[in-house]
Design a protein that fits this description.
382 residues, 5-stranded antiparallel beta sheet, 4-stranded antiparallel beta sheet, 7 helices
Length: 382
Amino acid sequence: MTTLGSGHDEFDRSTKKRKIEIDLQKTLIVNLPEHLIIEHILPRLPVKSLIRFKTVCKLWLSIISTSEFAQSHLKFSSLNPKFVILSEDHSLDEHYKLFLLNYDENNDTRELIRLNLDQNWVFTNLDVVGSCNGLLCLYLEEETKYGSFCVWNPVTNQCREIKNPNGEAFALDFGFGYASTVDDYKIVALFSPRKHGFGDLYVYSLKLGQWKRIDGLDGFYAALSLDDMTIVINDTLYWPLKNLNDWQKAKCIVGFDLVDEKLKEIPWMNWFNQYKRADFFGMKGCLSLHCHGDQGSDVWVLKQYGDGNSWEKLFSVNLGGMSFLNFTETGKCLVKTSDRLKVIDPSQENPEESQVGVEFSGQIAGTGVYVESFISPFVTES
């Protein structure tokens, strides 16, 4: 990963950071009890620092390399999420770029970091399928060939390539998420021999290492359009409601249960009819909707999961000339002006007047929430 900015500034930051790490190693080894280091300090450190700390001693190498440590570390890193941003510009030699945006909800955006895509990846089209527990699921497609998925941890640079279930089939739409109940990461995708039309729904389990076709779907459900950066709440995968007219006919909102591998329905509410489209996101662990209408947009949250009557409108969003990109867990907005990325409070009267943020003039193709982790894409059934 490389940070945007001058090479000299990057060298100074790297040197200073390395000195801090060396001083920290000396302090940890000399002054603190071992159990405090292992249980309370190491899990709170950044992944890059911990990778270097593996060389301190055999004990640290052994501890940091375990799946138990990865889970412990994830609990703390999840408290400091970032945004992953896919930039697209076909006028440049590099059509696609991936970034991580560090932000602080009190001090706005802090740092924009460029992710180094593997030079061995060959693609003409790139989609970020989803982000979960430090793993990014990407879909790489060549112009004249069928594409493939890869699940990548950009911090540890571990990458697992996943071929399509049928050699001659295109992935029309897709989603990615973690099912905590069964401790498994899954890809949900529609495949078809053509780039348009109906497809067959498949689910890939990282734990089992195989695709499974989901039978019994009628024409309506088979034609559902998933989208990148899907959201998983309570082990159920949801995707943006692009055309509310189709969902009105079905009289329900449909998600995909990653545990039972079945479609799950939430009853349709009449107030949905006033909107044209909606995006799902998570807020404080609850399923939430950002609904777009002619007069602006509103944020709703499902207070009681599975109970359609528990939807509650939290606030309206008026961003003026700024483009909405995503929400944080606490309801702050990631937005873009013509030349900056900002994290703002949508309840502010004049968010356009805020001068904070980081410079960014590229075209945004997708965003998602990301946390650093040691989670490996090479999950296997124990």
